[in-house]
Amino acid sequence: MSLATLRTGLQSLLAGITDIGVVTDYEPFVQREEDFRTYFYDAPADRILGWTITRESTSERDKDNATTWRNHAMVIRGYAPVGQKGFTEKAFQDLIEDICDAVRAQQLPQLVGFGVTSVTFVGPPQVRLVEARQFFDKLVHYVEITIACEGEEVSNP
3-state DSSP call for residue 56? Predict the structure, then answer.
């Protein structure tokens, strides 16, 4: 199971959700307000609304002499504005539920429809944190959703 393929598959899954905003398959380095707008500004909606996908950790265990089982803890982080052109807390929570529903729908097919192969397990989404955060002069809703993904990888060809 390639980490790059897994990230791309999750990005495609999220991109298919209505009014999701900008989805980036990595955690960009955001140091200035311009950087924040570059990665999280949804031009069609004219507002900040963005998501990132990254790996938080990976554990491995031997399967046999040539392969290992890799367990990736993937994290989806989301940012949406509070207030003007923004989301109410309820609307943001509803969008989080849309993401969780989309992930749960892919647990059994294991993201195969999104180009991911060699995944043997996609866990249910875990909403780890929902809060308001300050980014520069912007108050945003913030969420972290974790997903456990397990798959086979050739380690000793």
Answer: strand
What DSSP designation does 118 have? S
By DSSP bridging, strand 119-122 and strand 67-81 are unpaired
Residue 54: closest CA among 33, 29, 36: 29
Amino acid at 62: D
CATH of domain 3-154: 3.30.2000.10
Res 154 pLDDT > 70 = no
Tell me the whole-structure pTM to 2 decimals: 0.90
Domain limits, the chain: 3-154
Q: Coil, strand, or helix at residue 126? A: strand
Dihedral of CA atoms 88, 84, 137, 15 in degrees, nearest 10, equals 60
- Token representation of residue 87: 């989301």
